[in-house]
Amino acid sequence: MSRRLLVLAVAIVAALLVVPAAFALRVHVRVEGKTRTIYGSTEPTLNVQLNALDALESASVAGEFYYHVAIASFGRYVDQIGHYPASGSSGWVFKVNGVSPSVGADAVQLKNGDRVLWYWADFGPTGGPKTLELKAGAKRNCYRVIAQDDTGKTTPARSALLHVGARSVVARTGSACVGKHSGLVTATLKGTVRSNALQ
After folding, report:
1. Quick one: pLDDT at residue 10?
2. Which terminus of the chain has fewer CB atoms gathered within 10 Å of its CB, N or C?
3. What is the chain's percent helix, strand, coil content, to nearest 5?
């Protein structure tokens, strides 16, 4: 190989190594497990290459947890995160900006600022569970809890529990104040996926 071709080959390889970094996106990622939050209760921002499956990969590196991708006739799907493999009518699904896409995670292209949630779901006759989102209220130390279905439609999560430290406060209307606190606040409601955490 001539010196000129060698220099050209090195330049091409260097450019290919730089291109993926140039296309990295910054998205918020959270992974809610069957019994606890696996990664990112506060929805930290991670560098992600392209899609929702890449978001899980970035979270698994940052949080040092295991996941597995299986291949079936309909494409690639996540059949295990952490210790829990999918089984029967239970398994791993995801939402992007509160909506559950109708395609696989590797087909959902992300954009900067997107919110990706991976979570364990038990499916019943009416589909999967709603996911909770915790938002800051109008007053200090007050919060709103909303429940999102797979289409992203939201309703107040009435009677959700707001947790801060060892205390719990019932959000009877979907909103409540927890008083002065120093830790993170989360929300739970039976039959739904736990919320993100806020200060």
Report:
1. 44
2. N
3. 20, 45, 40
Separate counts of helices (H) and strands (E) for the chain: 2, 16
Which residue ranges of the chain lie beneath pLDDT 70? 1-23
- pTM (2 decimals)? 0.86
Query: Distance (Å, rounded) from C-alpha 138 to C-alpha 143?
Result: 8
Asked whether 142 and 177 are in contact (CB, 8 A), the reply is yes
Question: 139 has which bridge partners?
Answer: none
Token output for 7? 């220099």
Amino acid found at 185 = V
Tell me, rounded to whole angstroms, the distance of Cα 172 from its chain centroid. 26
Per-residue CA distances from 106 to 11, 14, 128, 172 (Å): 30, 26, 21, 39
Token readout for 133 is 């989102």
Residue 62 pLDDT: 97
Determine if residue 98 is left, alpha or beta; phi over 0 gives left, psi from -120 to 50 gives alpha, anything else beta. left
What value, to the nearest 5°, has the Cα angle with vertex 188 and ends 58 and 54? 15
147: its two tokens: 């429940």
Instruction: For 6-52, give the DSSP string.
Output: HHHHHHHHHHHHHHHHHT-EEEEEEEE-SSSEEE-TT--EEEE-SBH
Nearest to 24, CA basis, from 117, 146, 142, 112: 112
Residue 149 DSSP one-character state: -
